[in-house]
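ok so I'm stuck.
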Amino acid sequence: MRGGMHDPQLLPRNERQFLQRHAQQRKADMHRLADAFEGAVGEIVETVSSSANELEMSANTLTTAATRSQQLATMVAAASEEASTNVQSVASASEELTSSVGEISRQVQQSSRVANDAVSQAQKTDARITELSGALSTFRPLSLNVSFLRSTFFTISVSLVCVGAATPMKVPRSAT
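replied:
not stuck anymore, here's the structure
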């Protein structure tokens, strides 16, 4: 009897109907469960797909921002290099200017020494002419030559003063 109980043909009609309804109910439950599972998986797939799209958009935005940042960094580096070059040019020009000012100062000092030497020499020459004028005052024809020398010396002295190489000096007058 045991083996016959599982055979639906041998069971009474009520039990067979019960088992059929139970099998149908179970089948319907399985379909509902499968539909619910499929719906849940569908929602998950849709959520993952939406998240993937959002991640792709975020990645594109980040790529664009990174590209722009790289372009800006390149521009800043170029501007910095240009500024550095300009600073070096200014420093070089400043050194040249300092050197030029030093050279001009040296030349002014040299010119001043030459002018002072010329004034000193002119004073010695004037003193010498005065001595000669005194010694030659007895010779009248020669006194005209001394006067000529004196006026020439005065002209040279005035020329030196005009160019700024000497200070004016007085030419002594002789008793001629």
